[in-house]
Sequence to fold (435 residues):
Amino acid sequence: MTALFLLLPLLLPVALPPLARRALDRLTPAAALWSVTGCAVLLAGCAAVTLGLFVLLGLLKLPLFAALGELVHPLRAAPDAFVLPAAVASLGALAVCAGALVRSVLGQARAFRTARAETGDRPPAGDLYVVDSPRPDAYALPGRPHRVVVTTAMLRSLDGPEREALLAHERAHNAGGHHYALAAAELAAHCHPALRPVRDTIRLAAERAADEAAAASVGDRRLTARAIARAALAAQSARSVRPGFAPGAAGGPVPQRVQALLAAPRAPRAGRAIAALLVACAALSLVASVTGTAEIHHRVEVAQGDERP
Amino acid sequence: MTDAKDERRPAGELEASVLAALWAAGAPRTPGQVQQSLGTGLARTTVTTILTRLHDKGVVDRRRQGRGYAYFPVRDVQDAHGLTARRMHSELDRDSDRETVLARFVAQLSPDDERILRDLLEADGR
Fold:
């Protein structure tokens, strides 16, 4: 029974990628963004805790750690044939995760510092910082104060109203605090391999949320769609290296965003079911890992002779 | 989009829009030309006010043209700084797939994406 509680948090993340995609289809982009991000972080945390428990069980089998843990009886949580391989595998997985997490955090911090340095100390006009560059590019730079960075090539590839849509989009990222969700998605993706596709869904949800906010701000969905399409094509023609991957039938994130804007705004429908599934998934993982932890705690107390089995 | 709505926008946003228009133009522009290229309902007097404010801040420069001024963006004060910015930008560009906290306006396109987007733009009548 303990094993089941401990395996559930490791298996549940596999269910999240399809759920996350459905959530983005059914919920408003902002609601999908935050509910999927919250669920992904929780599942990642529970999976990491579970791996830690496996390692703990394995360690307490070793005489040294059993002595340190003041165990007077052998610890009976799961069969030895299961505990030792599980502990070794968990330790390896945790080490790989920790390495990937540290690398990711360092890489993100470096990119962030470079981007901050690029804008210098003062934004020249309002929140806009223009970088004189032949590559069309634009991004939101969170911080105090929030900034929007756009290259001259990007400004030149759009007309006046399209530039307004672009600025509104980046401001929506900053105002919505989307960078928190993107950072959380990145961390979760390194905690469990099944959460990697969820990171892409969260990125798309953040873009869709900013697109909708921009469309509301400029009051024109088609204009916003056109701005995205033209910016993407301009950026692409300036790139020397092209990606060699074959995309799925639905196209990559940019065509999906443009199509969603060109389609009529959707009334929220059947969103409750998918929201309930997300909550259930998170709750199940949480309950399983809490129960598993409590169970192991009890077994340790028993082995310490403090409690009766 | 109504005039009233544009006039009510925060000053910082208006400044950003006007500076963006000047950079996009690539040549000195009079307040009237800026107003046209913005394509919004801003009054010309408002555009003039914003341009004057940007000029006071040292973000744009101007030169006499007819009875008024034509404005253009100031490049980075030291040219060396401009070069640094460009170099840093290419550094960012190289890492674009890995750094995700910076929400970029558009992601990379696959060849299929490119075709789909061109079709969508054409269907939209442009």
